[in-house]
Amino acid sequence: MNRCWGWGGETENPEFARVESYRHFVARPGVKMYFCRRNNFMVVVSFLIVLSFEAYLWLMQTPLLPQTIQSTDLCKGEIANGTITALKYNKTFIISPYHDDREGNLTRVIAVVRYKKIQDLYCWFCCSHDGHVSIIRAAIDIHLDRTDFPFGPADIVCLEPRKCSPKYVSIHSSPRGKIDKLPRFEIKNRVPEDSFSAEFTLCLPVMFGNYSNVLQFIQSMEMYKILGAQKVLVYMYNCSQLIEKVLEFYVAEGTIDIIPWPIFSYVNFSSFWYSSKDWDYGKATVLNDCIYRNMYRSKYVVLNDIDEIILPIKHLSWKTMVSDLEDRNPETGIFLFENHLFPQHIFSSTDTLNISSWKMVPGTNILQHIYREPIKLKFSNQRKMIVNPRAVVQTSVHTILKGYSKTLVVPKEIAILYHCRQYVEKEVPGKYLIRDTTIWRYNVSLINNVNNILEKQFPRKSSKFRWNKF
């Protein structure tokens, strides 16, 4: 005679957006599961093995809902102040959390993860009104443009608890532990600013390789200001002493904000069959961070490299260009610009713009480079962007991965991406190059502005000494 017993259970698989309460794997009324004592011992063992496996899968696939810890003394973990914070015993690096209420009451954490060693992560929220802690299982959203390099950008997304309004969050690989032992991260964008502090903010990806192209850097900065940029963010790995001096000037002026990016303190490239250039020093990650930093500070965000300038053809400024594009293309908030290479080894035949006072400044004079390559139809043309940051969820270097608005590829008759850099590919014969003097429309303003900067930083009487000093 078999003796059987059972307990009731109701299976659920709630969606992420419906997460409301912490779930334990416990008996539930509704569905009965029976366990019978049989003479056949192997049947019982097999059944238990299958049951254990099914329970494991159920636990792994079911999001954990908030677990509230009733204590006001736990929200005292050390506040993380660095740009990058490594999670303990986890190949995950936290950049910064941002409040995102466009699709729900979410906290979106910009992070770098090791793709093949991703573990479950949990958001530990400190509720600001009563000091309670709520623990939410995170969704890890790996960016679709991931490369073969083991590390890359990801969003760690958690639904914020109701009636909590957390100011800080900790990220942990377990729903158990002591929050005062975990670093706390301030959740930014909690209170959107009433008005934009900038019309256009430029996000420059990582400055590396002891960057030292002083003249082109100053020219680019002044061109950005002429075109309409009020703020420039520079993510800094390293640069030359001369560039440091120039950066100090622009920081004091209020144009540049420098964000440290000590990525090699966390990712050891010698452990992989890759170089730092294969990963671009985490360029995609910093661009995502820059967009969220400026979500409510800037009306538009410009994404290009320091040797690139989004150059209007039909207009004189970014403001008039974007305004015209929006009028002609309603519901568009993402504008892509074709890359046009102006190789640095090809010079203009005229010497009128080879300013004598600039010859002592190390770097490239972009006014001398007015010959561009034709578009290579067989190759993808990498574009750069001007975007409404509130229309962007995730970005890569050359396109928006997830967003809320239409995208427009801007015709080259309206604007181009002026890209002046050293030649790294097979040279195009000179007879195929196209003379393009669009940059010369800004000659008077650019020359005056650059001269003014050089005069303030390096007075002419001692300029030779100062340049040689470095």
Summary of the model, kept short:
The protein has 470 residues and is α+β, with helices and mostly antiparallel strands. It has 8 helices and 26 strands. The longest helix is centred in the first third of the chain and has 21 residues, at 41-61.
Task: Provide keyphrases for this structure.
single chain; 470 residues; alpha+beta; 7-stranded mixed beta sheet; 5-stranded antiparallel beta sheet; elongated; disordered C terminus
What features would you describe in this structure?
This protein is α+β, with helices and mostly antiparallel strands and 470 residues long. The protein is built from eight helices and 26 strands. Strands 15-14-13-16-21-18-24 form a seven-stranded mixed beta sheet. Helix 2 packs across helix 7 (443-457). The longest helix has 21 residues, at 41-61. It is elongated and about 70 Å long. 34% of the residues are buried. Mean pLDDT is 82; it is low at 1-39, 53-66, 68-73 and 461-470.
